[in-house]
Design brief:
By secondary structure, the protein is of the alpha+beta class. The protein contains 13 helices and 23 strands. The chain has a 7-stranded antiparallel beta sheet. The longest helix has 45 residues. The protein is elongated.
Length: 580
């Protein structure tokens, strides 16, 4: 969900409950566009993070501390001068805008009580933190915006502060039925879009949710709704906004296959049966959501070089494989040349000098055949020439048979590493994958390894099935090898996606007969942690571990098995408990 007016309303409500009446104890500016305020209230300390980052503007209560510069920036020093020891007397959100205004009472240099405003604007690339007088005169801001940068509003010391109205929108808290019908539902755009482009503070997902709750297709034209549909939509909208007015917030993150895809301060019923995780406060939600997002983003950035190496090696191997297939196809002519040589030896005794061809009966097919000849050579020399071609192509074919197997195995190995990179969640996962790339020569090992600093060891995923059985999932080839041949015992069950790279999945059976549900959940894990993750269905092979064998000299994680069972599974892992 966007950091929209609804989330701001939820934050404002939380801040009023926790920070109102509190005193500002410390002010830090760890980044050029970020503040941290320590606020003491009711014998508790709260740390408020405010970021005006253009890429990720945020505000929430956090327990995390940041490293601060040795010398405080000018804006931080100014706030310390005016607001240190100041008391927060009001926290408001003007007209459902993405703005939070802190009214702070403090003592001036003469010891008199006065008031200042700290205004936080969370508007994407236009985000800012602005410090003003009660009359709206700007004292300073964390970002200075001149008319050269923005023709809408200057944000500079001495200028008057105002909220820019770049689009004509109505306040959803005060909109009437007539205005809703005439202003919102008169547009020839999809209903969900008409809602969030006409009303302040609503994001696309809020528009979709209102339509879903009202039983209206959000993709149909707003102007094309019938009177009954318009009335239903307005009733659904009013019920939706009543939750906001009454501060009935339900912070939750929506997950799809254990990945956070959306967050909200309200219940998102439009996602149906997708997994959700509820939070006691919107700040706790935001900290968790962006921590997960940042972790995944950081891992993607750190793995970019490894992905590039694997991608380059894969492309090279696939080109080599296609070339070898073409060469193998060319060797199919070898048997023809062998027959030519034999027929020339059989029928070439009465060839005329300088003959350019020989027509005779092919005793293999009992059909006539014409064989091209080199007119400058004798029959025997022509036969030798064809036998030489046959032997050369035969040697090439025999060599290519081995090379094709090697190249195919190399491609499968690289594809398995690529799949492992898509599974990796932590730096230790990447370290193990990098070690495999080094071991097989895709990355050159630099420097002496003796006494090298070791990273924390990566471990397989550990899930608990609905029936209480332990399920382990390898994150890479080394872990697959260890799971199958060291951790699993003979009667444990082994699962793997059929014919595509993926994780080895082991279910510890405890020498018991597994329930059907556990088989289905293990198969879903094998489907999810495979190259077929994005498919609707994936075929899964499963068999008891004692029937899984390793081929001597094979790369880690590569096995053979026979007489296996198969099932089709959806790559979904919702509902399974992941042990940390």
């Amino acid at each position: 969900m966007a950091f929209d007016g609804l989330v701001i309303a939820s934050l404002t409500h939380e801040f009023r409950e926790t920070l109102l009446g509190g005193r500002i104890h410390k002010i830090y500016q760890p980044e050029g566009d970020e503040l941290i305020l320590t606020i003491k209230n009711n014998r508790e300390s709260f740390r408020l993070l405010i970021s005006a980052s253009a890429s990720l503007p945020l505000i929430y209560l956090t327990k995390e501390n940041r490293t601060n510069p040795l010398t405080a920036p000018n804006f931080c020093m100014l706030l310390r001068k005016h607001l240190s020891g100041g008391r927060i007397i009001d926290i408001t959100q003007p007209e459902m805008e993405r703005i939070i205004r802190f009214e702070i009472e403090h003592l001036d240099e003469m010891g008199d009580t006065c008031t200042k405003y700290l205004i936080v604007e969370l508007m994407g690339k236009h985000s800012n933190i602005i410090f003003t007088q009660p009359d709206g005169t700007i004292i300073d801001s964390i970002k200075h915006i001149s008319l050269n940068i923005s023709s809408v509003r200057e944000v500079l010391p001495g200028r008057s502060y105002f909220i820019p109205k770049t689009t004509e929108k109505k306040n959803p808290l005060t909109v009437t039925k007539d205005t809703f019908f005439d202003f919102v539902l008169s547009r020839t755009v999809p209903v969900s879009k008409a809602l969030y482009t006409s009303l302040t503070g609503l994001s696309p997902i809020a528009g979709t949710e209102i339509c879903f709750r009202s039983g209206i297709d959000g993709d149909v034209s707003a102007a094309g709704l019938s009177p009954d549909e318009k009335s239903r939509l307005f009733e659904g909208f009013c019920a939706f906004m009543e939750d906001i007015k009454s501060c009935r917030f339900a912070p939750a993150i929506v997950y799809h296959n254990d990945e956070p895809v959306e967050f909200s301060c309200i219940a998102l019923t439009c996602y149906g049966l997708e997994k959700t995780r509820s939070f006691t406060s919107i700040s706790e939600l935001l900290e968790s959501y962006y921590a997960e997002k940042n972790t995944r983003t950081r891992i993607r950035q750190k793995s970019s070089e490894l992905r590039r190496i694997v991608s380059t090696a894969l492309e090279r191997s696939r080109k080599k494989y296609q070339l070898q297939l073409k060469q193998m196809s060319d060797t199919q002519k070898k048997d023809k040349y062998k027959v030519y040589g034999e027929l020339i030896n059989t029928y070439g005794y009465d060839l005329e000098p300088n003959a350019k061809s020989l027509t005779c009966l092919n005793y293999y097919t009992n059909e006539p055949i014409t064989i091209p000849l080199d007119a400058d050579l004798t029959a025997r020399e022509n036969a030798i020439r064809y036998f030489d071609r046959y032997n050369k192509l035969k040697r090439t074919s025999e060599a290519l048979e081995g090379l094709l197997v090697e190249t195919r195995e190399e491609i499968e190995h690289l594809e398995s590493i690529s799949t492992a990179l898509s599974i990796a969640l932590y730096e230790e996962d990447l370290a193990q994958i990098k070690e495999e790339l080094v071991e097989y020569g895709y990355i050159r090992r630099h420097g002496p390894q003796k006494g090298a600093k070791r990273t924390q060891k990566s471990h397989p995923f550990h899930y608990i099935s609905s029936d209480g059985y332990d399920i382990y999932v390898g994150k890479n080839n080394f872990q697959n090898e260890e799971l199958t041949f060291k951790i699993a015992t003979g009667n444990d069950w082994w699962f793997h996606a059929k014919g595509i790279p993926g994780s080895h999945v082991i279910v510890k059976s405890n020498n018991e007969e597994l329930p059907d549900r556990t088989f289905e959940e293990a198969a879903s894990l094998a489907a999810y942690y495979s190259q077929g993750r994005s498919a609707k269905k994936v075929e899964i092979d499963y068999i008891q571990k004692k029937h899984v064998k390793k081929v001597a000299g094979a790369k880690p994680g590569f096995v053979i098995y026979h007489t296996n069972y198969s099932m089709v599974a959806s790559p979904k892992i919702d509902g399974l408990t992941l042990c940390q």
